[in-house]
Amino acid sequence: MNTLIIATKNKGKVKEVKEILNDINIEIKSLVDYPEVQDIEEHGDTFEMNALIKAREVFNTLGIPILSDDSGLEVYALGMKPGVYSARYACEDVNSLKNNLKLLFELQSVPENQRHARFRCVTVFKTSDAEIISEGICEGRIISELKGEGGFGYDPLFIPDGYSQTFAELPQDVKNIISHRGMALRKIKPIIRGHFQYLNN
Ligand code: ITT
User: Fold this and answer.
1) 131: helix, coil or strand?
2) 164, 158 in Cβ contact below 8 A?
3) Which of 33, 54, 133, 136 could be 184's S-S partner, Cβ–Cβ 3.0 to 4.6 Å?
4) Which fold has domain 3-199?
């Protein structure tokens, strides 16, 4: 069976990507399965640059089709921060609780009706002869206390527009339909499917 590698060790992302692509007949692995791939320095200042950096570095090491995801939260009242720094907003290590607490602290004096935010996700599908990029955006707002146990990252603080529950409270299949990641992946999915169908013919 053909293999697609997701260029991440983030288990929350891996779970979502696998579910969204589950009707393509491929084996999906992540960098958790490839400890020999060294940590990648994400030195780009846009989601697109960082997604390209991850896809290219992992492709150069492993030489098989790669899907990368660079994503984050942009809060309007904070000048679109934390943005590309979402994973390491509070400290150098990825620590979701600390990031969420820092976000609550930064927004403590911002009233409910000015807490608009959006998640953005840029994905890159890289093969030996192409790099395809897609983007998804999900608008919503940040609440003032953590709610829900599901999802990952900032999910317990984010309520998508049109809903009354956080991403951490909503069922995973609902998040996948409306999320930034779901949107970016559904755009790129026909190309991924077509690539592997072509390889099999
Ligand atoms: P990789 O670089 O290994 O993919 P990462 O977690 O460092 O993993 P990013 O650099 O793309 O990934 O940072 C994304 C951060 O943005 C992530 O750690 C979360 O804090 C946040 N984030 C992205 N998508 C999210 C989602 O669907 N729900 C909640 N938080 C999300």
Assistant:
1) strand
2) no
3) 136
4) Maf protein (3.90.950)
* 40 CB within 6 A, ligand 1: no
Tell me which residue has its CA closest to atom 4 in ligand 1.
Answer: 8
What digits encode the pLDDT tens for the residues 81-111? 999 999 999 988 878 999 999 999 999 999 9
Does the annotation count 70 as an active-site position? Answer: yes
The whole-angstrom separation of Cα 16 and Cα 108 is 31
- Cβ distance 195 to 127 under 8 Å? yes
Helix then strand count (H, E) for the chain reads 5, 7
Query: For a pLDDT cut of 70, what percent of the chain falls above it?
Result: 100
- Mean pLDDT, the chain, rounded, equals 96
For ligand 1, is residue 184 a contact (CB within 6 Å)?
no
- Integer CA distances (angstroms), 109 to 4, 74, 114, in order: 45, 18, 10
> Residue 141: which of 109, 173, 163, 120 has the closest Cα?
163
Give the separation between CA 196 and CA 167, rounded to whole angstroms.
Answer: 32
Structural domain boundaries in the chain: 3-199
